[in-house]
Amino acid sequence: MTGTTLSEASTSKFVRIQDGELDLNIHYNDCGEGAETVVMLHGSGPGASGWANFNRNIEPLVAAGYRVILMDCPGWSKSDSIVCTGSRSDLNARVLKGLVDALELDRVHILGNSMGGHSAVAFALANPERVGKLVLMGGGTGGASPFTPMPTEGIKLLQGLYREPTIDNLKKMMNVFVFDTSDLTEELFQARLDNMLNRRDHLENFVKSLAANPKQFPDFSPRLAEIKAQTLVIWGSNDRFVPMDTGLRLLAGLPNAELHVFNRCGHWAQWEHADKFNRMVLDFLTH
């Protein structure tokens, strides 16, 4: 499959996942073919999706011979909505387990951004035999920073946007989401706002979830040593959503981890520094 044939619509698929009493219709994109599969897990921002988060990263992996799966977590994009009263990280991990089972994938590499990083860690803890390598950006454990007031500036703006989904609130959040705002076009803002408003049930249920359980992402720090998978931790030095000391905590806790820090980079390393990010990930996966 070449880059010219890759599109969100042409790769769009659904699968039904049973999780206890839940029966969820989960959307995912299935790109390329290959003996090894990379699963990409998006963050928790309003209007997020696998495709929106990783559209700058799919083609290089497919061109290198990987199958790429982008899972939309329950409560985002075209997946079913849900009120999560427990651990969102573990819920997403269980749904991912259902997806890889349905696709009959024995083992996958996982690339997770923000919430996706938390979910990747939860999946690795629950299913160590199903994990190849991990790439974690801007997330992975939910402990409080000893250096940055919590919740962070970015998380406050994110939660405010969920409660009042306006173009002004979206711009306020996105302007601290990345370091260099010059790529944030009016078309990007409008597309993200449209995605949000098309699924008001997702917005409302996220707010209900926070009310039921303000700590959606548990701190996995005490269990990180259990994860033996080789892990590449990538952070932006200017991340105003999840401070960089979280990345240092991952580096200290994961026995087979390495850390790369991008200067002049916010919370979206795979988008802000896409070319170098893609080269790093491909080198990490193939060596």
Q: State the order of secondary-structure elements, H for helix, E for strand.
A: EEEHHEHEHEHHHHEHEHH
CATH architectural type: 3-Layer(aba) Sandwich
Please compute the radius of gyration using only Cα atoms: 17 Å
Kindly name the structural category.
Answer: alpha/beta
Please, what is the CATH homologous superfamily? Alpha/Beta hydrolase fold, catalytic domain
Q: What is the first-to-last residue Cα distance? A: 24 Å
Q: How many individual β-strands?
A: 8
Oligomer category:
single chain
Trace the largest sheet across and list its strands. 1-2-4-3-5-6-7-8
Mean pLDDT: 96
Question: Can you put this structure into words, describing what you see?
Answer:
Its EC number is 3.7.1.14. Catalyzes the cleavage of the C5-C6 bond of 2-hydroxy-6-oxononadienedioate and 2-hydroxy-6-oxononatrienedioate, a dienol ring fission product of the bacterial meta-cleavage pathway for degradation of phenylpropionic acid. This is 2-hydroxy-6-oxononadienedioate/2-hydroxy-6-oxononatrienedioate hydrolase. It is an enzyme of class 3 (hydrolase). Pathway: Aromatic compound metabolism; 3-phenylpropanoate degradation. The protein has 287 residues and is α/β, with parallel strands linked by helices. It has one domain: Alpha/Beta hydrolase fold, catalytic domain (Rossmann fold, 3-Layer(aba) Sandwich), CATH 3.40.50. Helix content is 39%, strand content 18%. It has eleven helices and eight strands. Strands 1-2-4-3-5-6-7-8 form an eight-stranded mixed beta sheet, with helices on both faces. Helix 3 crosses helix 4 and helix 5 packs antiparallel against helix 6. It is globular. The model has no long low-confidence stretch (mean pLDDT 96).
